[in-house]
């Protein structure tokens, strides 16, 4: 909702300022300019990216407009990792087998539906729990593996916002291109009179305006919002990374989970005592 309000604020203030200065709304309607600019932008993004990135652009754009309250998600993350580590400590790594092979049917994961909806997190967690179950691995070795894995995932997921940001940077250039073409047409009508030439030049400048407006008013902020959705997803992975590294290094389940807690964003991060309360309540259920 806040992002929609932001778009409306940009549109209303720009158009109202134009009208207050004596501008005419009719002059803003330059369909040929918009076709050139938007068509060039669409073509460039198709040319520069593959299907996966285009699909991510669509999904991340949609998610950018959805409000997230992740308090319950982080609580379930803490409870799940605590239960996994405690049972592993008590029953051994073989305990993991029945749960990590098919987490969608696991009685353990079924208790945490919000986690099951985060497919990227579930895959990351189960794959690396499987790695732990295969044999002894030192904490520093696991840290190097997880850092590389997360870095590759971040690069892949950020490709969509980078693509939109690249188009945003090109929009002023596309606006200038449309304006130049309009000026070329105007030069062919130079003998039509000063009024006609003036109107055509004004129409050409609308293309430049539209390119700049799309860049700084819409696409650049959208690119940043898409980046924020990726960073939200990555926060869970970084928290999971800390839990696994500390557990592999021989820390207790509670201390390992606390290391993950410290990676949770400030507005959702529980205090250590609150985390302990969650864990005790989870055991009592």
Automatic annotation (TrEMBL):
The keyword Ligase does not apply. It is a multi-pass membrane protein. Residues 127-234 form the MotA/TolQ/ExbB proton channel domain. Its main location: membrane. Pfam families: MotA_ExbB, MotA_N. Residues 4-92 form the Motility protein A N-terminal domain. It is found in: Cell inner membrane. The chain crosses the membrane at residues 158-186, 192-219. Keywords: Cell inner membrane, Cell membrane, Cell projection, Chemotaxis, Cilium, Flagellar rotation, Flagellum, Hydrogen ion transport, Ion transport, Membrane, Transmembrane, Transmembrane helix, Transport. The keyword Cell inner membrane applies. InterPro entries: Flag_MotA_CS, Flagellar_motor_stator_MotA, MotA-like, MotA_ExbB_proton_chnl, MotA_N. Belongs to the MotA family. This is MotA family flagellar motor rotation protein.
